[in-house]
Amino acid sequence: MKTNSFWDSIYMKLLLELLFLAFIPIVLIISVFFYLNQQNNADIKYELNDRVTNSIIANINNNTEFTSRTTQSLLSSNELISFLNNDYSMEMDYNNYTSSIQSYIQATINADPRSAIYIYMDNPTIPMSMDVFYHLSDISAEAPIADFLNSSLVEQWFCESDFAGISNPYLFPAEKCFIYLRKAYDFRKNFLGVIAFSIPEKYFLSFENEGDETVISSGCFRIINLSGNTLSEDTLSTIQSSGQSYAQMNGFLVTLSQPEDFPISIITVTKNSNYGQLIGVFLLLLGLFAILSILLCLRSLQQMERQMNECLSAMDISIINNYKTRIPVSGNNEISHICRRINLLLTQAAELSRQNILKETSNKESRLIALQHQINPHFIYNTMEVFSSKMKLYGHYEESDCLVAFANIFRYNISTNDALVEVHIELEQLRNYLRIQKLRYPMISFVSNIPDRLMTALLPKFTLQPIIENAISHGISDSSHALFITVSVNQKGERLLFCLKDNGTGISPEKLSALNHTLHNTGHASDIASDGHSVGLKNVNTRLELYFGKESRLSVASIPGQETCVSFEIPYRLPEL
What we know:
Elements: H1 10-75, H2 78-85, H3 90-111, E1 116-121, E2 133-135, H4 143-150, E3 155-158, E4 177-185, E5 191-200, E6 215-218, E7 221-225, H5 233-242, E8 246-249, E9 252-257, E10 265-271, H6 275-320, H7 334-393, H8 397-415, E11 420-422, H9 423-437, E12 444-449, E13 458-460, H10 464-475, E14 483-492, E15 495-502, H11 509-521, H12 535-548, E16 555-559, E17 563-571
Parallel strand pairs: 1-2, 7-10, 12-14
Antiparallel strand pairs: 1-5, 3-4, 4-5, 6-7, 8-9, 9-10, 11-13, 14-15, 15-17, 16-17
Helix pairs in contact: 1-6, 6-7, 7-8, 8-9, 10-12
């Protein structure tokens, strides 16, 4: 019987819980997919950051190299070095100063249109001119210049933030520019002054697809904003303080690079996808579903365990109370229906127990009656013993022996309840029977061809005597006919073959066929009375079949006028010790 409600079934509850559990790997797979996709997108954007950064660094290297070559070109002019090294004389140097020196400087400036070139002379005798020549003493007190002059460096790059807050009319322009300072010496290593290049930052920080507000200057950092979003001050502060070459923060992918011997760090920023938030949501759902599924499974298992324990306890109580109590049933799931079925079984068990008690009582009464009835057979046996003794007193020895043989058969019949007896016991009762038959048929002879080792084998009680009785009844035509009976037993593996042969009148083929058909196709007692001449054979055949199966049925072979043989096979069994 199925449950009334599909949703109340254990199957449905466990199915829903398993679906919850099945959702966990699905969420996990989706999370892994999003994570891998995010990593792939992050790698692509990091590659974009690297391309832009490498492009900028290449521009920086090109510009610094070009500036270095220009400076070297200026310092390679012996005329300029000599001019800077000697005291200035208006009469002697003016024409050279205004024509040759200034023309050379102007040519250099024209060759590098991106740069503003300034020469700060250590020689105070030379006048300032052309907005190019300045006295070093006018700017040497400024902190960045003083630090450079006091250092062992020959050249150094500066950025706008290094000169923040300095207001000096003689100082080169530093706003949105990179400054290159180079110390000038003659061939005797005499210090001549400082050559300064002021170059706009755009020449260094240019790259493809540059747009408005792409480059953000913040101190010594140049932030390349490729995200398309406006970066807040907090975001800029966080990015600058990270110090990591590659980082993810505030929804951005950040790449940090430091060009060699250059005063700025380049930070490239691209927008990160929001897959990280989705992964977080999925993982949160995963955890919630996992906890919920585990709790539901534990709850179902606890309910099942509780119901099963209640069922077992109730069954134990019912067994103790002789199946009178019943299991309490609650709910409408499979275990409830099992409890109802067990209650039906307990009801049937109680009824069977009651019937068994009645049968046991009836059996006891029958045994008492049977014991009472045994008194009469024992009385008859004792009476025959008295008659036998009297016969011997009057010289009737042969009749007395026959009466003793009959008494032994009678006692054999009533003295044992064993269904199986040993062969030698069965033979002894057969000899008692033949002793009685010899009073009527004195020409009967009997031979036993049974090995001694098989004498203790077991066979059903009263098996041989009915077969021999049938041989005497149908094998002797008159009392003067000699009848020779042989009983033989042979072992065939785990089975024994019994053969009872006589040399009587035999059986006609028609009757033999009918007899074997009856023996081989029926073994029921209801068929025994069909032929009075074969009642004993049918009785033995039925008992052999009941004990050992159809393989042990009787088989009858006969040659009319010569012999008849009745044979059967039974398992080889010995008495238990």
